[in-house]
Amino acid sequence: MPAPPTIYIVCSDRGRNGKTFLARVLTDHLLIEERDPFCFDLSAPEGALRAYFPGRTALIDMSDEKSRGKLFELLLARAGRDYVIDVPSPHLARFCEAAGEISLHEAARAKGFRLCVLFIVDRDPASLKTAVALEEMLQPDLLAPAVNRFVGTSLPDGVPGPVIIIDKIEGELRVLITQRRFSLRSFLLGDEASVPARLRAPLKNVLHGVIDGLRNIEPAMSLQSLHEADL
């Protein structure tokens, strides 16, 4: 039986810590799993995520009330598929306020969606506090913390549930994967021709580390659903 459609909210309270990279790997992972996700990029006018998925991404201007309304209108009007929402740190508070106004967690569940937040916990302890507050505010089925080893984290060891690890991405590898024409999905599917031999193993380590964490999300949400059903 296929898993229910899920709304993934990829966010952090800090910038430049790999959030859009995480959203990108998540989208490619869902595509490989034949889940056909659609993305909402809230970084207008830059369109960081849309640059990699132009045909399946809507660019949303969170400073515009009409555009914000379009986000939730499109999201809830098209049930039955997964969605990935890339929320830049400057717009996180505004997004949460707008989500609260429509009771997103209730509206999503009424349409058959599950709600999953992927939050990159930065090295400042305040980032961990934001993650906790965000979970209380959005009431997702699961909040999965993510750690970027390049920037560091305040997430303590041994937290329960899935944790997504982004290994260090530096130098040539960083330059390679940020090229708009470079496809992580093609590389994951075995097309390594566009990657220099010396970079293939490091890139595999980074991607497989992230995907291992992503693969633990579905079982964790299923267990949570079973637990709620027993209550």
Task: Summarize it.
This protein is α/β, with parallel strands linked by helices.
What does this entry look like structurally?
With 231 residues, the protein is α/β, with parallel strands linked by helices. The protein has a single domain, classed as P-loop containing nucleotide triphosphate hydrolases (Rossmann fold, 3-Layer(aba) Sandwich), CATH 3.40.50.300. Helices cover 45% and strands 15% of the residues. The protein has helices spanning 19-32, 65-77, 92-101, 104-110, 125-138, 171-177, 184-188, 197-215, 217-230; strands spanning 6-11, 38-41, 57-59, 83-86, 114-120, 142-148, 164-166. It is globular and about 50 Å long. The two termini are 23 Å apart.
If strands are numbered along the chain, what order do they take across the biggest sheet? 3-2-4-1-5-6-7
Question: Shape, please?
Answer: globular
First-to-last CA distance: 23 Å
Uncertain spans, ≥5 residues at pLDDT below 50? none
The CATH architecture comes to 3-Layer(aba) Sandwich
CATH T-level topology:
Rossmann fold
> Could you estimate the helical fraction of the residues in percent?
40-55%
Class of secondary structure makeup:
alpha/beta
Which helices and strands occur, and which strands form pairs?
Elements lengths: L5 E6 L7 H14 L5 E4 L15 E3 L5 H13 L5 E4 L5 H10 L2 H7 L3 E7 L4 H14 L3 E7 L15 E3 L4 H7 L6 H5 L8 H19 L1 H14 L1
Parallel strand pairs: 1-4, 1-5, 2-3, 2-4, 5-6, 6-7
